[in-house]
Specification:
mainly alpha, 4 helices
Amino acid sequence: MPPHEGGTLDAGSPGTQPEDLGTATGLGLSRIDQVERGAEDMSLDDLLLIAHVLDVELAELVAD
């Protein structure tokens, strides 16, 4: 997993922005944006990292 700056973001907060997620995970805004647009798939490691930073279970992150 890439290093991240630590801490968590509030997943339920309407103010959580892709920039914040990119910074907190160390993945960067470009990577988050590409995944959001469906231009790239996300690895399991990246999903686990995002779930950790958002302080949610992986199942919550990928649920329909």
